[in-house]
Design a protein that fits this description.
Number of helices: 9
Number of strands: 5
Order of helices and strands: EEEHEEHHHHHHHH
Helix content: 40-55%
Distance between the termini: 41 Å
Number of domains: 3
CATH superfamily of the largest domain: 5' to 3' exonuclease, C-terminal subdomain
Shape: globular
Length: 192
Amino acid sequence: MFEYITGRIVELTPAHLVIENGGVGYFVNVSLHTYTCMSGKENATVYIHQVIRDDAHMLFGFEGKRERELFRMLITVSGIGANTARMMLSSLSPPEIEQAIVEENVEALKGVKGIGLKSAQRVVVDLKNKMGKMAEEKAPEPADSSVREEAFSALVMLGFPKNSVEKVISRLLSESAEHTVESLVKNALRRL
């Protein structure tokens, strides 16, 4: 199994790239998100997920481990194959998919081509707990932890449950570490 391929980008399209390493060109299926991240680069590291079927051996590539981890979580859902998961990552950014799952936003997932109501509901049901844990693990601590504490206290005093507040604040800080107490509280209020 491949972990990643580092090399020269020979060809780059919104659906695939060819990356050369050691005189071998690897055809790698990519999402639109990865394509955007790789645009303009001459050399790159692509994190790989390999799919082996009776009729094909395919490589799916990602700009980072987190996107690959999300892809792997999506393909564990019944009815979501590798190409459908790639379509999801092309239609929505990884943070948007994570947010839609955690917030049970079935409509956002349903907006992806090939995802119907039942599939979107299945994704939410199967991945909500995993996604919440993943967001908590990946959330960086802000440089000034007093910002987090003050925002947390303000939201709890407004009557929101501590667990919900902690998750929302962690998610917001994982998206951008540069928050003031005021911006953190305002953004959290929109999501609670």
